[in-house]
Specification:
With 467 residues, the protein is mainly α. It has one domain: Growth Hormone, Chain: A, CATH 1.20.1250. 76% of the residues lie in helices and 1% in strands. Strands 1-3-2 form a 3-stranded antiparallel β-sheet.
């Protein structure tokens, strides 16, 4: 079937007609590799924390500050790079953020003290915080609406791959060679990604929305050729002057978006408070429950592996049940199994509850990453993603500190707090969320308003001609 034809179509329609093919698969591989390295970079520190604590002679609270330094950097990076990328473009912003996290992640392996480790992890987080919203925004803007949620969840599943790799490397490296070689591994992968990432083109949606129609047309033709679609000429209409370059952060709180923004900020905060609280201290929690050093890392690896089927089940259900319903159900079960993990005492039940907690928690994360870019228009998509993910970094700063305070006092109290956080996220999405399944991605705030008012999946905008 030809990607082009007589008449005029929207940009979304052009991408829909070109379809999902070889180009998107290549982009998935690059973005997925990046996402796996991002996850590994975060969790290598958590998995190495017992060894770092012993090496530098840190208290539990001091160890929590080292972990939190990464999330402080991610908070600053998410809010800074999300807004900047809506101005300078997805491709340029992504390349810069990957370079920052790779360089400082590698340097952190040579930290002479806990203070230097915290400083270098802050800078690593500053790069990571920008890569998170850019990765998903870029991939979403290349996807046809059919099965878009499923492909976004599959991209998120690479986080689980990175976590599994981090757990496996920690299991192998830390007991034999210490934490420093472990810290260097994902940073080296990041340097490779930086080189590969420069070959990915800019988002045609972003180009068209910023008055660079000819470049957008060329990229659309390139995608069509890569996917084996016949194409002769693509002609895009210029964006309306009032809409071009409308990247203000204030738009997040406009009448059209305020409900989604509040819902997303609450969801990102509470799911991150629970998830990072649990997984930052996971080896320590197992150790506190009487498991030896080797068993601690083996069980951590099992829990990391349990994330993968959680992702893939969510990938299927977001297109069958929809984003909102799947998200709420996975959050609710995350809360239940986190609470059970807190109260059971039998070894088999502890591991079983932890595995199911990991399964549903990562499925919930997958829903969140598919859901968020669909709720914001192109003009402020990375701004919205960056601001929302910034709330996760606020929680990421608090979660290890809360764990450092509560775990020595009462392990059950800490785990119950994390269970209640999952439940709070479920309530926020259930009450304030709206379904986005099968909707076209909006390019302007006005289109978002039309979607909410009419329930239409077709954007009412200027038409673009492909001939």
């Amino acid at each position: 079937m030809s990607a082009t034809g007589a008449g005029s179509v929207t940009v979304q329609d052009a991408i829909d007609r070109i379809g999902f093919g070889r180009f998107q698969l290549g982009l998935l591989a690059v973005c997925g590799f990046t996402w796996a390295a991002d996850a590994a970079e975060i969790f290598l520190l958590a998995f190495a924390l017992p060894a770092i604590t012993e090496d530098f002679g840190l208290s539990t609270f001091e160890s929590s500050l080292v972990v939190s330094s990464t999330f402080v950097g991610m908070l600053c990076g998410a809010w800074f790079w999300g807004t900047i990328a809506d101005r300078i473009g997805r491709r340029t912003g992504f390349a810069i953020t990957i370079g920052v996290f790779a360089v400082f992640g590698l340097l952190s392996a040579f930290s002479p003290s806990a203070l230097w480790l915290g400083v270098l992890r802050f800078m690593t987080g500053f790069g990571l915080g920008g890569a998170v919203p850019l990765d998903f925004s870029l991939f979403a803007e290349y996807l046809p609406r059919r099965n878009r949620g499923r492909w976004l969840v599959i991209l998120e599943s690479f986080w689980g791959v990175g976590t599994v790799i981090a757990a496996l490397l920690a299991w192998i490296i830390v007991p034999n060679w210490g934490w420093r070689p472990l810290m260097a591994t994902s940073a080296i992968a990041g340097l490779l990604i930086f080189w590969v990432r420069l070959r990915i083109p800019e988002s045609p949606r972003w180009l068209a929305a910023n008055g660079r129609e000819e470049e957008a047309e060329g990229i659309l033709r390139r995608i069509a050729r890569a996917n084996g679609k016949a194409v002769e000429q693509i002609k895009l209409a210029a964006p309306r002057a009032a809409e071009a370059g409308a990247h203000s952060v204030k738009q997040l709180w406009s009448r059209q978006l305020v409900r989604s923004t509040v819902m997303l900020w609450l969801a990102w905060f509470f799911i991150a408070l629970a998830y990072y609280g649990l997984f930052s201290w996971l080896p320590t929690i197992f150790f506190e429950r009487g498991f030896d050093f080797v068993k601690t890392y083996s069980y951590t690896f099992i829990l990391a592996a349990a994330q993968l089927p959680g992702y893939f089940s969510a990938a299927w259900l977001v297109e069958k049940w929809g984003r909102k319903r799947t998200f709420v159900i996975y959050l609710a079960f995350s809360a239940v199994f986190t609470w059970l993990y807190a109260v059971v005492t039998n070894t088999g039940l502890i591991v079983g509850a932890a595995v199911l907690m990991s399964f549903f928690a990562l499925g919930a994360w997958a829903c969140l990453y598919a859901y968020t870019p669909e709720l914001y228009p192109t003009a402020i998509r990375t701004t919205g993603m960056g601001a929302a993910s910034g709330m996760a970094r606020v929680a990421g700063v608090l979660a290890p500190i809360l764990g450092g305070v509560l775990i020595p006092l009462s392990l059950e109290a800490a785990l119950t707090l994390y269970a209640l956080s999952f439940a709070a996220a479920a309530l926020a999405v259930g009450i304030l969320g709206r379904e986005t399944k099968s909707e076209a991605l909006a390019d302007t705030v006005d289109e978002t308003r039309r979607f909410e008012r009419t329930g239409s999946t077709e954007p009412a905008r200027e038409r673009v001609a492909i001939s």
